[in-house]
């Protein structure tokens, strides 16, 4: 009953809150806060019951064809509770936020509650069909968040967000169809038992497309850096902190259960995670917009979590630590982005800008905002004593364990350094934001004077200040007591990740782990001092946007392909297919050709071709082959061609070697000598020698080889080069043969 109540309560609020807003705005805000607080209370009750090992499930077998199935374990109860906690605080903060940005508040309240229902439904789902239904509810309902301001930039970002959600959702649906065809079920338990089924590899990859897109993984990340800055700050906190985690929920279901034992898939996910992590951090370093920087940071942190999950996949039953790190960083990132985006909302409420150059000096003298933002920045940077350090340490140890477990793969050591470098970039961009807001002074004296007037009493209400304080407290609690707070939650989530629970405490504050965190901090400070300040900042102009404007994956690839190429291609194919039934090709030429071909076959048995020409031709061919061994063709022509071909390849090898030596090895004297006896000259001599062997060129025309002629390579290297060329030709021929046999 409690599950049904948690699913229906937000929908009830989505109807009542906008209706109440027709009469009174305060009534609408009261109902919005009331329903989110009630949902949070129910989620806490549910988490306590599940923690006592009580099974809670809800089934609707005949609903919507395949039925809807819900089940709650510790991981799902934990994330539902965290989602409700974030919704409750974000809606409390939105009261003051929308007081100065008050448009479309009824619509915002309605779709905020519907999105909450979708998120809770995703986390409670127990089969892929239920996940997909609530995933689409969540995606469609969160569209008005992005389009809330209805500016051209907001509408374009919302268009991108919706397009990615719908297109990738359809790809996920195709994967579900194929999975159902192979297994006859979409239940998580059944899919876990089918983990070794190679027929599910392609469907699993299709399903992952939609989940990776919602998580914001490269190359489907294009919506994330554009949607977060234009959405209201409370909605941005939920988009970044929670909606991306629904995508990771699907990645866990598919990756850790269906594909968990596939090393190729694990390596692909590892590569995507490292690339996502690094690209997001680089984009954040270059960003000059407060919320866009935090959005690109979310992209980077999703990469951290993916790296942890991929290490758990590759380590198998030894991946308990990496799996715990991935779950821990999911929780920590949600809390960190709630804190930082609400801080950004507090800044935007009064400054009415997100440009870093204009925001310089805003936080000077604002002690509460300063303290809360600093805790969030230090936590995201992985400073010991705060929550981000704990989960990053576990993921880092998982990478080290992977490098030690699989011997001979130094690439994992490289992955570790990519991890540390990306963590250093996190320190760099958070240091940039912190110094910009709280230490630098705005060059515009009037603007700085206005900022200074906003003291702790006037920059936000008591309610908003309390909300910010509540978002910061978990960061300290987890950071100071990781083995007592975070580790039990990750251990209880192990069954959902299909990995054993971590059986020991982690030495978070050991010298080795502190050194790993220290390396990242040193890298970050160095990047800030030697790149951000001298390259991306000017005292007169402020923070400079040096990221190339044309380097936008959406504008240079996705939009041209989906808005121009595919419509043109589809129209061309459709026009061609429409033309074919009435064309002469179909109505005249093909029937005549078929008729003539069958008439020819009917005529063959009695024709001269069968009775005379073919027997004579066969006799002539055999007579020719009998004559070949003593013929001019075999005695002169074939050897001559072989000489020409071999000398041509020899000359080509010499040309390459000459080019290399001219670049790296030869001095001027050797180079002049080589040019005097260049491979082109010897190549012409080789051709002449071959023609001489055939008998077409007199021997006296052939130039004698110069005894001082420079040789490039010896007989062995030339033979090897010639053999490699023949091998390459054989490989190409084999590939073509395979493609023909496959019908490609």
Would you report the number of β strands? 4
Shape verdict = globular
How many DSSP H or I helices? 28
Extract low-pLDDT stretches. Answer: 705-720
Strand order of the largest sheet: 1-2
Helix amount: over 70%
How would you characterize this protein structure?
The protein has 744 residues and is mainly alpha-helical. Among the domains are: 260-547, no CATH class; 626-742, no CATH class. It contains 28 helices and four strands. Strand 1 (56-60) and strand 2 form a beta hairpin. The chain is globular, with a radius of gyration of 34 Å. It starts with a helix and ends with a helix. Residues 705-720 have low confidence and may be disordered.
Describe the structure concisely for a colleague.
The chain is mainly α. It contains 28 helices and four strands. The protein has helices at 2-23, 25-51, 74-97, 105-124, 128-146, 152-183, 188-193, 201-215, 224-230, 233-258, 263-286, 290-315, 320-351, 356-359, 367-381, 387-405, 411-438, 445-453, 462-480, 482-492, 511-536, 553-579, 584-603, 608-627, 632-664, 668-676, 679-694, 715-742; strands at 56-60, 68-72, 537-538, 542-543.
Structure characteristics:
744 residues; mainly alpha; two-stranded antiparallel ribbon; 28 helices; 76% helix; globular
Write the layout of secondary structure elements.
Blueprint: H1 2-23, H2 25-51, E1 56-60, E2 68-72, H3 74-97, H4 105-124, H5 128-146, H6 152-183, H7 188-193, H8 201-215, H9 224-230, H10 233-258, H11 263-286, H12 290-315, H13 320-351, H14 356-359, H15 367-381, H16 387-405, H17 411-438, H18 445-453, H19 462-480, H20 482-492, H21 511-536, E3 537-538, E4 542-543, H22 553-579, H23 584-603, H24 608-627, H25 632-664, H26 668-676, H27 679-694, H28 715-742
Antiparallel strand pairs: 1-2, 3-4
């Amino acid at each position: 009953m409690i599950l049904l109540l948690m699913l229906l309560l937000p929908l009830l609020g989505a109807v009542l809150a906008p209706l109440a807003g027709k009469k009174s705005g305060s009534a609408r805000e009261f109902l919005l806060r009331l329903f989110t607080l009630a949902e949070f209370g129910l989620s806490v009750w549910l988490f306590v019951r599940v923690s006592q090992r009580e099974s809670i499930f809800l089934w609707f077998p005949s609903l919507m064809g395949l039925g809807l199935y819900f089940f709650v374990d510790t991981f799902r109860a934990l994330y539902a509770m965290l989602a409700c906690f974030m919704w409750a605080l974000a809606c409390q903060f939105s009261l003051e936020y929308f007081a100065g940005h008050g448009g479309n508040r009824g619509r915002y309240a309605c779709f905020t509650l519907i999105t909450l229902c979708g998120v809770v439904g995703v986390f409670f789902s127990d089969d892929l069909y239920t996940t997909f239904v609530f995933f689409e509810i969540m995606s469609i309902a969160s569209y008005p968040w992005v389009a809330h301001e209805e500016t051209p930039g907001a509408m374009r970002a919302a268009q991108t967000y919706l397009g990615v959600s719908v297109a990738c959702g359809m790809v996920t649906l195709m994967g579900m169809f194929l999975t159902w065809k192979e297994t006859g079920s979409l239940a998580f338990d059944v899919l876990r038992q089918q983990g070794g089924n190679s027929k599910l590899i392609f469907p699993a990859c299709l399903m992952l497309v939609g989940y990776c897109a919602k998580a914001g993984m490269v190359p489907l990340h294009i919506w994330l850096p554009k949607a977060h800055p234009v959405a209201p700050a409370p909605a941005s906190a939920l988009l970044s902190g929670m909606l991306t985690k629904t995508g990771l929920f699907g990645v866990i279901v598919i990756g850790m259960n269906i594909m968990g034992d596939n090393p190729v898939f694990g390596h692909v996910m590892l590569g995507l995670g490292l690339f996502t992590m690094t690209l997001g951090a680089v984009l954040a370093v270059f960003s000059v917009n407060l919320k866009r920087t935090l959005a690109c940071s979310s992209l980077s942190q999703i990469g951290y979590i993916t790296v942890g999950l991929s290490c758990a996949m590759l380590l198998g039953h030894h991946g308990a630590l990496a799996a715990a790190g991935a779950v821990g960083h999911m929780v920590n990132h949600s809390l960190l982005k709630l804190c930082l985006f609400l801080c950004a909302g507090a800044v935007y409420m009064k400054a009415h800008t997100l440009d870093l150059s204009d925001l310089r000096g805003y936080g000077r003298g604002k002690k509460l905002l300063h303290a809360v933002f600093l805790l969030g920045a230090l936590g995201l940077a992985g400073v010991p004593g705060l929550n981000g350090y704990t989960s990053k340490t576990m993921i880092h140890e998982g990478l080290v364990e992977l490098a030690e477990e699989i011997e001979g793969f130094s690439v994992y050591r490289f992955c570790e350094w990519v991890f540390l470098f990306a963590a250093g970039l996190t320190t760099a961009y958070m240091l940039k934001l912190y110094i910009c807001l709280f230490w630098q002074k705005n060059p515009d004296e009037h603007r700085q004077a206005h900022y200074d007037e906003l003291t702790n009493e006037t920059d936000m209400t008591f309610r908003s200040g309390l909300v910010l304080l509540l978002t910061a407290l978990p960061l300290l609690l987890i950071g100071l007591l990781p083995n007592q707070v975070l580790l039990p939650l990750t251990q209880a989530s192990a069954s959902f990740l299909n990995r054993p629970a971590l059986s020991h405490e982690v030495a978070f504050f050991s010298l080795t782990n502190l050194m790993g965190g220290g390396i990242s901090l040193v890298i970050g400070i160095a990047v800030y001092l030697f790149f951000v300040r001298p390259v991306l900042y000017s005292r007169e102009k402020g923070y400079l946007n040096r990221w190339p404007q044309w380097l936008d994956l959406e504008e240079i690839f996705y939009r041209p392909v989906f808005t121009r190429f595919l419509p043109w291609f589809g129209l061309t194919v459709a026009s061609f297919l429409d033309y074919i039934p009435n064309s002469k090709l179909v109505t005249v030429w093909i029937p005549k050709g078929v008729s003539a071909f069958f008439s020819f076959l009917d005529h063959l048995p009695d024709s001269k071709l069968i009775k005379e020409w073919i027997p004579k031709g066969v006799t002539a061919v055999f007579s020719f082959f009998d004559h070949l061994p003593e013929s001019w063709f075999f005695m002169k022509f074939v050897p001559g061609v072989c000489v020409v071909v071999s000398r041509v390849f020899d000359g080509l090898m010499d040309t390459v070697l000459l080019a290399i030596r001219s670049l790296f090895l030869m001095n001027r004297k050797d180079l002049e000598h080589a040019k005097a006896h260049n491979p082109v000259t010897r190549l012409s001599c080789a051709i002449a020698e071959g023609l001489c062997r055939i008998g077409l060129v007199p021997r006296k025309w052939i130039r004698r080889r110069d005894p001082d002629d420079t040789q490039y390579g010896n007989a062995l290297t030339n033979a090897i080069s010639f053999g490699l060329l023949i091998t390459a030709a054989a490989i190409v021929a084999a590939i073509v043969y395979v493609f023909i046999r496959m019908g490609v």
